[in-house]
């Protein structure tokens, strides 16, 4: 829920239009919780979740490393004070000239999931370390995980062998269990696959060193989620189970788990109406929607907690929609959202848990609406 | 398909990264075709489809009117040379202070779909003209049409009566048959509803004057679509059928139909790979995706024609995806896209029919990738 610092900031500042406020104290607390829960793992913050310079600087000062999706994100991390040994180029889809650019900036750790990408890296970043991403089933994750990234474990063996042959350092295996993952056993299945790849290559004399356990650590929306500590314990148990006394280096890449609960969007009710006299749900239109911050309501995947000025007495189901002239700009319709009967046009609402994957998803100017303004305090 | 002017422009300019090129000659031709097909209708270009200043200026000079979704779009149209009598505030969801702002700029034509919005307009824009949007079923449209906008015809009567009581000019009825609508009978059903609202209010002494027939006019993607002329004939036949000798003023709001086929996106193949040795589809990753221009591939709704340097011999099914580290950034997967076997990393592709709903949907900086660059020639 919104911290007192966020409430004070909103109470003392005046804005026309929706805005996101992120509390750095919460980010710091999340970082320290991850560090405590997984003391043997290095933390690579997934910059894409929220690349605000203040967040990157704070995390850099706390000792965090960074998972970058593009050259621009690498440059943001460097600017925030991270050294290049603390940055990975974690996107498996890279132009060869972008790899060369990253290599020139000193980046030496790269994600791959196919032989074609290994060949690019061998040409553009000779001698670099690569880790190969393996597919997981994404079971238990709330944000859909497609087969877009990763390959089957058997192919990962081929990919890393090829890297070794081309003079790269076949460094490890990565996986991602799916964003907002609340099923602890998802990490267990993925670690079992990772260990299989380690064993196969060991037999060929190639010693992998790293397991990148990705992100997926959830933030609390409407339902409770396991604590960082519970994740840490589950992951460490699986590591012992599959790697015995030879536990490899591990890294984690929290994004949502690092900043999701640190942010709150303030929005205004623009209109409340019905489509026919006998409708039993009201439509509630906000000044924030799918195209200026709430893209993750796509398919109603992420359900944010919403705070109104009316408390929680006398609720009724509402369809929530954004402000644009686009039919697709509807947030919750299949499963209507319970909101107070006394909700009124002009009311200000707080949408909690919106620190991750909001501001940067906003469109440049769809319908003439400006992108979501963001304040980091 | 790409015009020679666009091909020449791309051949003589060098870009790093994807870009959209829009040919104003095509926009002009589309405008003149609409004018010819529907000589009795005024054309209100839906600015949201593509608000590039060059497009707005051209259309303003040709005599077009403009459908604006926000105060910012009203200001763009004014800046392009449109007078305020040629601009409607067509969004049914407006803040009262934005209505006041528009009214101060001279805007006198407003969309509504409920009594609550009428009351705002009566306070903030006294005496203005309002038209009420009625729901349609969206049958036959390729881009999903929700119930977000409009009310049932019976309620539209109440809404317009209320406008009249509050001193506004109850001016007419609007509808939208759904974007990329290829079923000509959709307009017939909606016009029948509009005529019902006219008749009811006529009996109460309130004479409506306008039918706003909205947009929905399709652009040619992979399949052929009816010509503007075919639409014009069908619409005029329905108008005669339902309004007899008292055909009202009509306006149309083409957006996609005005600029869709005028634009081409140039993109680069970043990676081609498989997930397992025995996979029978390849994954093709482009440097443009859902978050930097191709948002309308959501649920694979819009299927763009794609031109490769290899012609159309020896094709195979591919899954197409964008460049970001987001699992949801997949363009066509449920129905794979046929692409040449000889397609290679680094190939440049042209994505046709991308003049509408691309550049402005692009996110500000997701994954550090810049928004889609746009050139209007």
TrEMBL record, chains A, B:
<dbReference type="InterPro" id="IPR000183">
    <property type="entry name" value="Orn/DAP/Arg_de-COase"/>
</dbReference>
<keyword id="KW-0663">Pyridoxal phosphate</keyword>
<feature type="domain" description="Orn/DAP/Arg decarboxylase 2 N-terminal">
    <location>
        <begin position="26"/>
        <end position="259"/>
    </location>
</feature>
<feature type="active site" description="Proton donor">
    <location>
        <position position="325"/>
    </location>
</feature>
<protein>
    <recommendedName>
        <fullName>ornithine decarboxylase</fullName>
        <ecNumber>4.1.1.17</ecNumber>
    </recommendedName>
</protein>
<comment type="pathway">
    <text>Amine and polyamine biosynthesis; putrescine biosynthesis via L-ornithine pathway; putrescine from L-ornithine: step 1/1.</text>
</comment>
<dbReference type="Pfam" id="PF02784">
    <property type="entry name" value="Orn_Arg_deC_N"/>
</dbReference>
<dbReference type="GO" id="GO:0005737">
    <property type="term" value="C:cytoplasm"/>
</dbReference>
<dbReference type="InterPro" id="IPR022644">
    <property type="entry name" value="De-COase2_N"/>
</dbReference>
<dbReference type="InterPro" id="IPR022653">
    <property type="entry name" value="De-COase2_pyr-phos_BS"/>
</dbReference>
<dbReference type="InterPro" id="IPR002433">
    <property type="entry name" value="Orn_de-COase"/>
</dbReference>
<dbReference type="InterPro" id="IPR029066">
    <property type="entry name" value="PLP-binding_barrel"/>
</dbReference>
<feature type="modified residue" description="N6-(pyridoxal phosphate)lysine">
    <location>
        <position position="48"/>
    </location>
</feature>
<dbReference type="GO" id="GO:0004586">
    <property type="term" value="F:ornithine decarboxylase activity"/>
</dbReference>
<dbReference type="GO" id="GO:0033387">
    <property type="term" value="P:putrescine biosynthetic process from arginine, via ornithine"/>
</dbReference>
<keyword id="KW-0456">Lyase</keyword>
<dbReference type="InterPro" id="IPR022657">
    <property type="entry name" value="De-COase2_CS"/>
</dbReference>
<dbReference type="InterPro" id="IPR009006">
    <property type="entry name" value="Ala_racemase/Decarboxylase_C"/>
</dbReference>
<comment type="similarity">
    <text>Belongs to the Orn/Lys/Arg decarboxylase class-II family.</text>
</comment>
